[in-house]
User: What shape does this take?
Amino acid sequence: MALCFSSFAGEILEEPVITVSPYNWSTQSVRMGDPSKKRQLDLELKVTMKAAEESGWKIACCGVGEGGLKLADSEGSPCPRMECCYDDSPSLLEGLEKGKTITLSTESWLPSADAKWMEVSGKIPFFICRASFMSESVSLKMEEGSSVPLVLRNAGSDGGDVDAVLEVVPYKVIGSQGFVSLRLFAPSKIGFLGANVESEDGAVLPVDGPSEYVPGEVGHPGRKYCWIMNFREEDIKEGEWKVVVKYADELKEIMVPVQARFGLFGVMENRNIQQEENGDEKARHDK
Assistant: This one.
């Protein structure tokens, strides 16, 4: 039986407002020493959410990788293909929290020589929630080849159950100790919020860093999406571990319009799209 945790009842509170704005852009060599001097372009968008403190709304996941964004420069040259990644892990740089970001990367396109700016436009689906579920406990060994099926009740965006799989994959980092990653594969996007891993005697296995989302396995519909948690090999004891997955319940999808312009000469412009009462959109330019 899945356990639901929610402190909300009665009237449904107003939905939050999510905005996506330009944050940073950069280029770098794809491969050091590459005679072709091929360069990769990276653009970062900052994601912010405004909601009443008592509402409890939070972003469970983002569908940025589903083809909803376009990139072009001021000369009209469009980017044919790019990779999109949503990162909500806490990233600390010189004591400052970066927050949630969307990164767009392309190796096949750079702005035209006469271009004055680049613009990202389109719509992104965000999935928000207020309540969370804890899955039923399953047991597995934290060793290579270990896996177990898991049903996440009401985890789908349509409120349906999701058949997932937990899998253990050890790996090593050069110059460091070994690690073990616990991977959750699912056929559809869910609001993965983490997992609790405990030994048979109740000892909690500490997580090494934040969890992350990565693309799943191509050609395997049941493994289209993947979430990873990492653990230090030295903390893992022999025997079985009990795993409970925490995830968002009753995901609600909201479409967020984006129109962010990146200046190529040190000027950046926000084009905040506002939803009018009649459903039309208008842009406000803030330089």
In short: The chain has a mean pLDDT of 80. The radius of gyration is 21 Å.
